[in-house]
Design goal:
Strand order of the largest sheet: 3-2-1-4-5-6-7
CATH class of the largest domain: Alpha Beta
CATH architecture of the largest domain: 3-Layer(aba) Sandwich
Mean pLDDT: 93
Shape: globular
Number of strands: 13
Strand content: 15-25%
Helix content: 25-40%
Low-confidence stretches: none
Structural class: alpha/beta
Largest sheet: 7 strands, parallel
CATH topology of the largest domain: Rossmann fold
CATH superfamily of the largest domain: Glycogen Phosphorylase B
Radius of gyration: 20 Å
Oligomer: single chain
Length: 341
């Protein structure tokens, strides 16, 4: 049983970093809070601070150095969900930061990307497809929680009601909380030239800097139905109403998969494309590549072929619904609760 009195969560969110890590941490924080532990956040970003405080949690805004938590708390564990590629210059810098972050903590728990030899914190969580194939450090006392069975999933994404339509007419375009590469605009530039007119719903996240006029300039001559929604509170409803979704390489692809929504993925960059290749190899999505290498014709052809092919969409939906377990949070908590220093 943990002696921890408080869990400290270190996470950032911004237009360039994205909101997925923060959304996941808020989900974890609420789960821990319901177990009668206190939770406090530390972040370097004003956007993440405002979102955290709106969710009812205390949040400290800090600088770039790892804070000394002993100045504030006597007994604590640390959860770090930091997008290391977006924040740190190299792996050594990231490792040193985590070492300082976890000093004096009962447990240091880190959520990591699909990388070989992750930092040896007390608990390493890599809740992604393909994580079981990663190389891990020998002689490390780390508890590894690996694979999509540990993916933290909000209750709304455990809905099993999606039915694949034989006549597909609706396309959802969503890139999660932000879209720094403006993949949304590239997608719309492609699908607005489809020979067949589909109903298109675009969802822009809270951190997206895409303007309505940007979309209007692209879709002005589109003869089909289209609408733009911002910072949607119940995104599951919009997902369940579409036939396919087009998304980026963020965590949204796991949520779409859990609902059984066939998806097309365009990755934010070449590194993320490697992760998306692995995810799509399981069969719930089609990965086109990184945004800088995907052309409009490829996007159009993939969408039209998928919309036409009921059998392929049915198989993708079936695979997706069993790819992501719905009890990831419980499994994470059970593993952590068995550990103490």
């Amino acid at each position: 049983m943990l002696n921890t009195k408080i869990f400290i969560i270190r996470v950032d969110a911004s237009e360039s970093i994205g909101l997925g890590h923060l959304a996941r941490c808020i989900l974890i924080a609420n789960f821990i809070k319901n177990k009668n532990y206190d939770v406090v956040f530390f972040t370097t970003q004003s956007l993440s601070q405002s979102i955290i405080e709106l969710e009812g949690f205390k949040c400290h805004r800090i600088g770039g150095l790892a804070p000394d938590f002993m100045e504030l708390y006597n007994s604590f564990s640390v959860i770090a969900d930091i997008n290391s590629d977006a924040i740190f210059n190299n792996k050594l810098e990231y490792s040193n930061y985590l070492k300082n972050l976890g000093r004096n903590a009962e447990l240091l728990i880190t959520l990591e990307d699909l990388i070989n030899y992750p930092y040896c914190s007390d608990v390493v969580i890599i809740p992604y497809c393909g994580a079981d194939k990663l190389k891990l450090k020998n002689g490390c006392k780390t508890k590894y929680l690996i694979g999509s069975t540990y993916f933290p999933l909000r209750d709304e994404f455990k809905d099993d009601s999606f039915i694949v339509s034989k006549s597909a007419t609706k396309i959802l375009v969503t890139m999660g909380g932000s879209d720094p590469e403006k993949i949304t605009l590239k997608v719309l530039n492609s699908i607005n030239k489809l020979d067949k007119l589909f109903d298109i719903t675009v969802i822009l996240g809270r951190a997206s800097n895409i303007l309505d006029k940007d979309i209007n300039n692209i879709m002005n001559n589109y003869m089909g139905l289209h609408r733009v929604l911002r910072d949607v509170k119940n995104i599951t409803k919009q997902m369940l109403e579409c036939d396919i979704a087009i998304t980026n390489s963020g965590l949204t692809k796991y949520e779409l998969s859990a609902l059984g929504i066939p998806s097309v993925i365009i990755s934010n960059n070449k590194q993320q494309a490697l992760y998306s290749d692995i995810f799509s190899s399981y069969g719930s999505s089609i990965h086109l590549g990184s945004v800088d290498s995907v052309n409009s014709k490829y996007i159009r052809d993939t969408c039209i072929n998928l919309m036409k092919n009921y059998k392929v969409r049915s198989n993708m939906s079936r695979v997706g619904k069993v790819l992501v377990a719905g009890d990831g949070l419980t499994k994470i908590w059970d593993a952590i609760n068995k550990l103490s220093k």
